[in-house]
Amino acid sequence: MKRIGVLTSGGDSPGMNAAIRAVVRKAIYHGVEVYGIYYGFAGLINGDIHKLDVGAVGDIIHRGGTMLYTARCEEFKTEEGQKKGIEQLEKFGIEGLIVIGGDGSFQGAKALSNRGYPAIGVPGTIDNDIAYTDFTIGFDTALNTVIEAIDKIRDTATSHERTYVIEVMGRDAGDLALWAGLADGAETIMIPEIDDSMSDIVKRLRRGHDRGKKHSIIVVAEGVGSGVDIGKEIQEKTNLETRVTVLGHIQRGGSPTARDRVLASRLGAKAVDLILAGDSGKVVGIVSNDIVYDDIDHALSMPRSIDESLYQLSKELSI
Ligand code: ATP
């Protein structure tokens, strides 16, 4: 292989730039040229493709977002869109593609691979919602952003003796809420994977209040429901003054943590190793701190679950 491509797709996540840098530098280290495809699969179809040299990825390792920009592209889900994409890649003489993104983006990589075009996926999403890998690029940074925000809210919660409901990202996956809740000593964590009854939550809040607790923090993953509605219900049922903060998009951006930069560097480099070895239809990940890879099909068929022991621990520590 003499020339490969790289794109980012789906939601941006901090560390994607570090992954792009790793792909570019590792490939060039092996004497292979790299082309950046801008705006995900949309840019692939449109031929928004430009050569990246060593310097093009300088000074990005510490930046959030993605220098290649990202997009969602319905057309790439069609046979016609995929054929157009492969035509563009062939036009530029690009012999394999590395796709950095979430599980939707992996479907795009799989579609290419099924058509005989070499493609490898690198997991980049703040949700940590891909089962085969312990962590996705961006999760650690988003988690630290959430924790910093909750620490600040906690100061106010304590000063005013209030209950705070904090809604964090996670439509289907509660990892961000779970880890943030544990790291921040939240009284209650509400995640889509675990059905905690409102009466139990109310009981716990009342118990804490009765033993003199000055404040309570409840971390809610957006997939459970609206934080605003949950806050209203809690106030009605506990009679405790309750405020709601929806953290929103501040969770997506920011300079990646050391952990995310290192993960992105390791995964990006591994993806290059695989593609240069002639592999296709694979995704890279990290399991017990080892860099691993798996077939996209197998990886995506693994049922997602959360670490229930963390949930249980959080409950035991927040009595
Ligand atoms: P996030 O986890 O941040 O949402 P994601 O990668 O899961 O990221 P999606 O919007 O699901 O984000 O997918 C990104 C893009 O991948 C889509 O806009 C589309 O271009 C491509 N894609 C998704 N599913 C398929 C599919 N079945 N076949 C081909 N391409 C797909």
Write the layout of secondary structure elements.
Layout: E1 3-8, H1 16-29, E2 33-37, H2 40-46, E3 49-52, H3 79-91, E4 97-101, H4 103-114, E5 119-123, H5 139-160, E6 163-168, H6 175-183, E7 188-190, H7 198-210, E8 216-221, H8 227-238, E9 242-246, H9 258-276, E10 282-287, E11 290-295, H10 296-301, H11 308-317
Parallel strand pairs: 1-2, 1-4, 4-5, 5-10, 6-8, 6-9, 7-8
Antiparallel strand pairs: 2-3, 10-11
Helix pairs in contact: 1-9, 2-3, 5-6, 6-11
The structure holds adenosine-5'-triphosphate.
Adenosine-5'-triphosphate binds at residues 9-11, 41, 72-73, 76-77, 101-105, 107-108, 111, 125, 127.
Binding site for ATP: 11, 72-73, 102-105
Keywords: Allosteric enzyme, ATP-binding, Cytoplasm, Glycolysis, Kinase, Magnesium, Metal-binding, Nucleotide-binding, Transferase
EC number: 2.7.1.11
